[in-house]
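Q: I have three molecules that I believe assemble together. Could you output structure tokens for the complex as a whole instead of separate predictions?
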Amino acid sequence: MSAIFEEKIHQTMADPKLQLAIFAATGRLMEKRRKAVNAEVCPDYQQLRTQANAVKRHTIGHLDYYLELFERNVAAHGGKVVFCKDAHEVADFVLGLAKERRASLIVKSKSMTTEEIDLNERLEHHQLEAVETDLGEYLIQLAHERPYHIVAPALHKTKEQVADLLTERLGVPRETVIEKQTMIARAVLREKFLAADIGISGANFLVADSGAIVLVENEGNARLTTSAPKIHIAIAGIEKMIPRAQDLGVFLKLLGRSATGQPLTVYTSFLSGPRRGEEIDGPDEFYVVLLDNGRTKVLADRDKRESLYCIRCGACLNHCPVYRKIGGHSFPWVYSGPIGAILTPQFLGVNHEPGLPFASSLCGACAEVCPVKIDIPKILLDLRSDVKKTELREGANRLERLAFRAWAWVMRHPRLYEMAGMAAASLAPSGDGGGWVRSAPAWGIKIAPLDAWLSQRDLPSAPTKSFRQLWRERR
Amino acid sequence: MPARVSLFVTCIVDQLFPKVGIAVADVLERLGFQVDFPELQTCCGQPAFNSGYRGEARQVARHFLDVFRDADYVVVPSGSCTSMIAHHFEDIFEKELDYLALARQLAPKVYEFSRFLIEIAGVEDVGARLDEVVTYHDSCHALRELKVKNGPRRLLGNVRGLELREMDAAEECCGFGGTFSVKFAEVSGGMARTKIDSILRTGASAVVSVDSSCLMQIQGALARAGLPIRTLHLAEVLASR
Amino acid sequence: MSRENVLHKVRTALGRSAGQPVQDSPPVYLTVPEAGVEARIDVFFERIEALAGKTHRAQSLEDARAYVERVIAGRKAIASNAPVLRQCGITALAGVESGITDGAQLRGLSASAACGITGADYALADTGTLVMLASPQEARLISLLPPVHIAVVEHERLLTGLDELLSILPHPAEQTSSMVLITGPSRTADIEQILVRGVHGPGEIHVVVV
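A: Yes, here they are, computed for all three components at once.
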């Protein structure tokens, strides 16, 4: 892995308060999910997963058709679809529209997609104020940080840190009571909602047969973002598509329960265009930006295409024993946890962080809880193979490759294997499983894997006889 | 009931925990099986496969298939090795149709030890005795890929003198993960310590599992922490009299 | 902007050609249970109360009005144009503004009102949810800006759950630009996972079934 990755992991693991925050937050979310998907309250949970996987497989497999259907239906209801191939185009579109409409203030509701394309940074360069309105996102925006977790962006912040942040950035007197901190943010953001020219949201789902987007939230900021300003722009990856409004029965059930244990979040908005006819309020203009930004590359890889089924529930993060130790900020990109580990190499190339596919014990807890049944461990294994192919091409990591070649050669020759085993046993400290050693003998050569093992735990001493020796004696 | 069972001890048991292999043989022989140990066996190839070296994994897997091609049943004291053979050989031999066919033909005959006892031998009580308070660790591959969960618990439940206490984090990964344990040693160590905390809360004097790699990780961490808790493979418990 | 570029890449990735039709999609999966009105109301109220919402089973239209009057307690309120509110006499209560059709006026009143009073197009029993379709009868902001939301739901509109809603309303987009499902008061747990209500939307919800 890269030195940065290693250092970030180390820092996170060396911070006991952060460890506790991550552990407690993910533990709570796991427990909530468990209560919402157990057999009494959700008897058809496994069928729902199977159905969701089948619908996603179908939709992704025919994505061009559904994109065009969606586009037609959005237009039919008075909105407009804008296809953007990358981050630049999205920023250009938003800036162009803002300029035309003489907009200066934008409010945003939570959208990982907009984080992915660094939209706020791009807008800031052009003197457009873009304010995050989800409480957690607002706080990390004030702190100039990235979200820590898909569902809980400010998971890592203590109330003392939030108090400092609010005082520093807003000039308010120091307040450490969480409810009052929330009300301070609410008051500030209410002004913004009512004054904003443009509201930018993401979309949890794009509904092809309706030309609609679906937004799920608990706070109400997404509703305000999409109802108060005159212009609403929804930005979503092309893979968010589902075929029919009726498929929401399955997807909404799975999303809420998997993410936070809620059968439904407080607000679920189904928005299909600017306000119509005699409707009293709502935006006058409605745009849906459909973003590629590398998704078509993932789409082209048949074996890994299912990575695009993700509905961004965050369950894999909560259940991952590795995420629970290293947290969201150790990851190199906006998407963290198991889904981040498979998306990042596919979007940014395996060389962006070659250690990422290996930062997993392949325990499979993620696959077990994924509502759309993405086989994350399988994709990680594929990516590991991709990394090694790249290294072979580039002539990198030669020593490791040589070691495995030698190992494979020994493993194909049973007598050599037996001799190698006996040789290692004679060099190593012995005992019959009773002794565990704290350190390796000083052979004068540094064996990195041995040192790494011993840095954390003891090593078993070599038994005096191998199994096959015992077996022969037994006969 | 079939008479002949071929034992694939796995390289880790062969080299580091040979008593586990002997225990498996003891239990099977007491149940009336004729246990065969093909001497040419070495490894299933998992370390290379998990590290991304598919070519090297393929070479070793070919050797495995050649050694075991005529087996009626292959019993394996490891969930991860069983899953490698029964599930992942498919991925390795995509393009080699003869070995792919051999892998597919062999897969249904390859059994993790506890699964073999329950499903093929049809027993849940092997007449074992061990006076100890133990807790059980669910090895990830056994649990999630092979759906091994209640079998070992039922087998342990019938061991005279044994008290089984469930730990709260039984299904959480111990942190071994093959080369993960050395590539991401700090995280792996942290995961082991979390597992140990859970074990301590049970008050058990031993941890039981169906995978020696997990036990090696857990025991290593226990020893480093100076804790007197020991680890036992399920086979060792079932072989106790 | 890059319409052809993106669509072309999608087709190439999938090995599909322009205009190629679609094979059978997996059938829709919706399960609609049977449940009588009383059972629905019981479950509905149980769910709302579990989310710290308040419920009231009105014995009559007057009773509904009386309940709403108690909740408002003389504070400024804005009511939507849902017919049921007029029928109950709620729009005639002191301090209640209604009959608004101008967007700017509605926004101003909603922003300063203590209570927002609406009807509901449907309600979902098994999740304690109100379903609001934007229309000349129901503006979006009334159930969103004021810190208290009072909804008067006619019992005939109470469905078993989301699946039943989607069964009878498969194409919400044909009716409205905005369909919102409201399940309890606004909430967040973004700071130290501590629950706080009323962060942007109403922190207090009252559901009256008539």
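A: One point stands out. Strands of chain B lie at 4-7, 34-36, 74-76, 110-112, 129-136, 160-164, 206-209, 230-233.
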